[in-house]
Amino acid sequence: MSTKKAAAVALVAALGVTTLAACGSDKADTAGEGTKSKTVTLVSHDSFNASKEVLAEFTEQTGYTVKVLKSGDAGEAVNKEILTKGSPQGDVFFGIDNTLLSRGLDNGLFEPYEAKGLDRIPAELQLDKAKHRVTPIDSGDICVNYDKKYFADKKLAPPQTFDDLAKPAYKDLLVVENPERSSPGLGFLLGTAAQYGDDGWQAYWKKLKDNGVKTVDSWELAYNQEFSGSAGGKKAKGDRPLVVSYASSPPVEVLYSEPQLKEAPTGVSTGTCFRQTEFAGLLNGAKNPEGGKALIDFLISKKFQEDMPLQMFVNPVVKDAALPELFTKHGEVIAKPQTMAPEKITEKREQWIQTWSSLVLK
Amino acid sequence: MALPVAFFAVFFAWPVVSIVGRGVRTDDGAWQFGRIGETLSRPDILDVLWFTVWQAAASTALTLLVALPGAYVFARFAFPGKAVLRAVVTVPFVLPTVMVGTAFLALVGRGGLFDELWGVRLDTSVWAILLAHMFFNYAVVVRTVGGLWAQLDPRQEEAARVLGASRWQAWRRVTLPALAPSVASAALMVFLFTFTSFGVVQVLGGSAYSTMEAEIYRQTARLLDLPTAAVLTLVQFAAVGAILAVHARTVRKRESALKLVPAELTARRPRGTGQWALLGGVLLSVTLLILLPLGVLVERSFSTPDGYGLDYYRALGSVDEGGTFLVPPMEAIGNSLEYALVATAVALLIGGLAAAALTRRAGRLVRGFDALLMLPLGVSAVTVGFGFLITLDEPPLDLRASWILVPLAQALVGVPFVVRTMLPVLRAVDARLREAAAVLGASPLKAWREVDLPMVWRALLIAAGFAFAVSLGEFGATVFIARPDNPTLPVAVARLLGRPGELNYGQAMALSTILMAVCAAALLLLERLRTERTSGEF
């Protein structure tokens, strides 16, 4: 009996150890056991991207290697940091936006650090200017996108403003995301609240509902299934020519087309936008604060800022960063987006979402 | 026994207890049991509880209805392509839920096949959820019930007929009692899987439907409402515990001595119109329920703007301009295989030791441990994931940023399969054979080599194969910890689906097809290893 067991253990253990060792060897460089002080860990949401060359340049400049830890979507990533407060998963957090900023600041997630080169960032984006707990890195606009072909075929002008969306001419055309489950959905709701005020937005949504607005759970569903203008939506025979997405979505449609399109198939309703700004901050309890500070400086360097648009489809925040041609050619600069103070968003978010649910979903 | 216990204590019990603990206590450490009653009387929470139970019961009933004839056909009929088909119906069981959601949207969603043909759309309806659950769990019934059915000696029923029983009486008196525990066991497993359904409900449920598992995720990850999440976790825990306790009883009953014969002897070509019609009906249901959704994924992976082609597969080999990943998506396959191998090794080690320990004694304590090993199947991956985050954060166990966390989480799910496969085989090794060998002069080592090993190694390989396939498809826990420089296949699929543009969608379909092919190949290999002696549950 015991021999049998011993042999079984030996067999299984041998199997386990060899495989572990085999995998361990080629993972050692990224696991970073011995290179701890030389590694700086960036915690972010799933949408984070940077090109290899740019990250390599950071290593060249500072000697630190960046390790990126994607921690779920934006809300989930922030909540995970709150749960692990004081014993963070990394050194720098990137990707807390103005809709979540107060929650992070109130929970004391970040160590103050005044980044080098802040003067190149417009003051209105520096939402924590007095304390420098977070540094703005990028901004983007959540806007209604329209299917150019649909409106051309119908000889109808695409809607441009929030008011337009509630007009009878655009009945049954718009699909939006549930703000409770999707960040563009939340952005759009906040945009309407900023436009019509605490008292007026509910009446506006009643009009939208009467005008046949459709709600789905995620941006993926809205954009790739319901929207008639996107590549995915065309394939899925989406029949809604209006969708809540980003101002940068048209260039992305061009970028991922095969063969490359000459003109974006979609356009942006410029009067329906809500501005999202994303921030980075040094995590409270970071193991490598020096590396973290260097990384934050690097995030607002010209090099990184010019890499960002084609990696994450957002706009740079520093004045000296040039936009890629794809953006200047197919993108839209939003002159007057809606905005809202982070404290107000934190205070009202849950209540507004609940009101919205009972108003629109029921 | 010590190693499996330690493994479960550190990587399962501790994280889960910690995260639940955060919820049931206030910041200054006082217990807040009042929250339980408060939470459980909220109408929205009650809706979730009701829907969870209701859809699980409905899914289980429908799965049994469709899969039991399948179990019979696979058990009793010999027909060409049976082994391949048996492997194929098992593929869904190990596929990641994101993919299944995508497949069903492509089928019953907007612009899906049914929409094009008949204008039928089932997305955001409860039918899409029920169909997907049937798709997932068909194999559980076919393998659990069919596996036993194939080995029941048909002569017993014939004997009853000779003695004057009608066909129905013979079936009811002889076959049904032998089969009933395995039907109950399969039903309970299906109920357990659908009761804790997460991915399917996330993708197909829309805003209208939420199971407890999906609600725990929402409360924790979105709203950071830990007290509500903790109450739900406790309720789910109690329910899963109860299901497993009943399951353990039925399993024990099933293992009571039955006269089993090799499966090859009981299967024969169908005879007469009735039997051919039954076979045809089962093949049709398998085609509609399983082959069609899988086929749609494959079709879409080849469907490029200018006709069918390999464009999306080719694109997998290069880093794209926009950089969804830092590496070509193709590398995700290599990562997945590596992770799955390590997870399999861990699951075999832990599961093998546990099964060996469970074989020797069947005391109350040990039986309790048996049921405990099944718990990871029923406890929220979200809870475990968040538990990992807040517990494994200090040296020597600061594993949160380590790659090993992925295979460890996957192994947790793999262990129950290893135990369930190994246990019946280990128990079935007749001690008298070993004694006989000893009497005939064999040394204990030789007796083990000649008697135990031939029976055990196949079971071990099958267990390994299952743990491997399950690890390959694991998504819930992996998505918490996988890193961008080495995403796993299901994580890569999810990320590609989350981006606009035709090329990303096509690549997601192509990767899904590859994952499907790998799973199918692994399962087909297992079919070849299966013999009459390896009558494990899967």
TrEMBL record, chain A:
Question: Where does the signal peptide begin and end?
Answer: 1-21
InterPro entries attached to this UniProt entry? ThiB-like
Source organism, top-level taxon: Bacteria
Report if keyword Ribosomal protein is assigned.
no
Keywords from UniProt, A to Z, are: Signal
Q: Which Gene3D superfamilies would you find in this protein's record? A: Periplasmic binding protein-like II (3.40.190.10)
Identify the SUPFAM superfamilies for this entry: Periplasmic binding protein-like II
**Record has Transmembrane helix as a keyword:** no
Q: What is this protein called?
A: Thiamine ABC transporter substrate-binding protein
From what organism does this protein derive?
Streptomyces solicathayae
Organism lineage: Bacteria, Bacillati, Actinomycetota, Actinomycetes, Kitasatosporales
TrEMBL record, chain B:
Q: Which CDD domains match?
A: TM_PBP2 (cd06261)
State the InterPro entries in the record: MetI-like (IPR000515), MetI-like_sf (IPR035906)
Q: Which residues form a coiled coil?
A: none
Pfam families from the entry?
BPD_transp_1 (PF00528)
Its chief place of residence is membrane
Alphabetically sorted, this entry's keywords are:
Cell inner membrane, Cell membrane, Membrane, Transmembrane, Transmembrane helix, Transport
Ligase found in the keyword field: no
Looking at the record's lineage, which domain of life comes first? Answer: Bacteria
Where in or outside the cell it occurs: the entry states: Cell inner membrane; Cell membrane
Q: Which residues cross the membrane?
A: 48-75, 87-107, 127-146, 176-204, 224-246, 276-298, 339-359, 371-392, 404-423, 459-482, 505-526
Topology in membrane: Multi-pass membrane protein
**Which residue ranges does the record assign to the ABC transmembrane type-1 domain?**
49-245, 333-526
Which family does this protein fall into? Belongs to the binding-protein-dependent transport system permease family.
PANTHER family from the UniProt entry: INNER MEMBRANE ABC TRANSPORTER PERMEASE PROTEIN YDCV
* Name of the protein in its database record: Iron ABC transporter permease
